[in-house]
Design goal:
By secondary structure, the protein is α/β, with parallel strands linked by helices. 48% of the residues lie in helices and 21% in strands. The chain has five helices and five strands; from the N terminus they run βαβαβαβααβ. Strand 2 (32-39), helix 2 (56-83) and strand 3 form a beta-alpha-beta unit. Helix 3 crosses helix 5. The longest helix has 28 residues, at 56-83.
């Protein structure tokens, strides 16, 4: 029986589609939903620059902006859950998205992860670092339902 669903969101069209699917799925099963947005810090700190040489004055505004964006993503998702009277909770994490999604799934003891996919091929996903591809191939112990765009 499915009683807990994890829905990662990045505010994209694909994430919104998977959220809508998850809300309808939760409504049918009576499940609760955990809404997760991950701030990917590696996206704004170049890997070739030592952390010591990057100005904190530059990083803090970017990090604040990304946090505000993540908050808006989960707030949108929360409003959709509330509209359909689906119990939900929101979580915002910082780190590598694949790792943080799996950590939250294990911590929350969810029964399923419902996530969107842009429908890229496996080769493109491996090269581009697709989060969905990473979750599926990281050895997750719970089912992953992929909603294609």
């Amino acid at each position: 029986m499915i009683s807990k669903i994890l829905v990662p969101t990045d505010g994209s069209k694909t994430a919104k589609k998977s959220l809508e699917y998850a809300v309808q799925f939760a409504k049918q099963t009576g499940a609760t939903v955990t809404l997760l947005s991950v701030i990917d810090k590696s996206a704004f700190v170049p890997q070739s620059i030592p952390a010591m040489s990057v100005s904190k004055n530059l990083i803090e505004p970017i990090e604040n902006y990304l946090r505000m964006a993540a908050e808006s993503y989960v707030e949108y998702a929360q409003r959709l859950c509330l509209k359909y009277e689906i119990p939900c909770r929101t979580v915002i994490r910082s780190g590598r998205p694949v790792d943080e999604i799996i950590k939250e799934a294990e911590k929350s003891k969810v029964d399923i992860i419902i996530i969107g996919s842009h429908g890229k091929s496996a080769l493109k996903a491996a090269v581009l670092g697709s989060v969905t591809f990473g979750i599926i191939n990281k050895g997750t112990k719970m089912p992953v339902l992929v909603v294609k765009n």
